[in-house]
């Protein structure tokens, strides 16, 4: 470690997603507040929202401004510093990262280019959608990688409804059709939320538009929905989506997206006024330009300790890390539970290294998967280890366990007492706020 003997270590966490914010919070509370280390969190946005909630923000069933966390406030309360900016380069020899200049909407520079020294660096920048270079995706599809993108989707959805409601004639064929490419958890959960929204908007007075006017399709290249999860879970989910009237198109690989339709390899043309791309992920491109080892989707390759393969003082966690899943083929899947487990391990690793102790290896424990279909159903499987099988759960129990995942994230950030108060506050808000964001 390059730190002078009379200086405290500098720890920088880049990325304030689920894993990054939990790690910075724990480091701040355990080390930063006690003066044992200087903790800095870097993110290009000023607020955090749990990424698995973005489909609810997009549908309007969750108001991001009520559930987002201000990084500056969390930093003040938790013993770390927050720096707004986007990392764009790394100097491993001098152990320095560089943040690009930050500009406002008019292009005026408000924060200059800056450099920060580190002793330990943790990269937790998550993932973005992978369009696989397919023609028209970038131009004509909406994405759900960030809060801003989810809010853009919600705004366009509401505008489409308002236009149809006030046009003075019946809804045109396809005018309210929504096509979602990708039948992973995001695509499936979004389809159920959108089905719910079609009924809520009618109840709130947009009754010139009938729920039956809204046609939702999911297009998936694999032979079933939720292809990365157990087949029993896929089957149960397909049954529930069928009840909601969602049109499932499996074994259909998208080859082109136009302004008003999606085309597949088999020759199908799916008309859609709103098109959403949720068909794969990749890590941000800048990671492949840092001089560290990456894979074909820009993820940083790490050892079982979560240290990058070329530099022991640089860690990677969450969706941007390519970590082998011991005992299984491939890498640890990009899930919130993996990011949470990685954050916990890296905290232990850094704390132990600071006092000269050995560090642990990371072993991913798959506790199962839960898929929420809005207020209609929740299905999932719970397990301790895939090799030991799993238990399918549905209905109320599955819904409660799904909600508990977010509560666990909140507890990691705020502690039990504050989460209890937040939960009570949320119950009171629900009694006076509409069930859907209407602006």
Rg of Cα set: 22 Å
End-to-end separation: 52 Å
H/I helix tally: 11
Sum up the overall morphology in one term. Answer: globular
Characterise this structure:
With 439 residues, the chain is an alpha/beta fold. The protein folds into two domains: 10-127 and 283-354, FAD/NAD(P)-binding domain, CATH 3.50.50; 133-279, FAD/NAD(P)-binding domain, CATH 3.50.50.100. Helix content is 33%, strand content 23%. It has helices spanning 18-32, 54-59, 64-67, 71-78, 137-140, 147-166, 185-203, 231-244, 336-354, 395-414, 416-432, and strands spanning 10-14, 38-43, 47-48, 69-70, 81-84, 87-91, 96-99, 102-103, 109-111, 114-117, 120-123, 128-129, 178-181, 216-219, 247-249, 254-257, 261-264, 269-271, 274-277, 281-282, 300-301, 307-308, 311-316, 321-322, 368-373, 377-382, 391-394. Strand 13 (178-181), helix 7 (185-203) and strand 14 (216-219) form a beta-alpha-beta unit.
Short description:
The chain has helices at 18-32, 54-59, 64-67, 71-78, 137-140, 147-166, 185-203, 231-244, 336-354, 395-414, 416-432; strands at 10-14, 38-43, 47-48, 69-70, 81-84, 87-91, 96-99, 102-103, 109-111, 114-117, 120-123, 128-129, 178-181, 216-219, 247-249, 254-257, 261-264, 269-271, 274-277, 281-282, 300-301, 307-308, 311-316, 321-322, 368-373, 377-382, 391-394. The chain is of the alpha/beta class and 439 residues long.
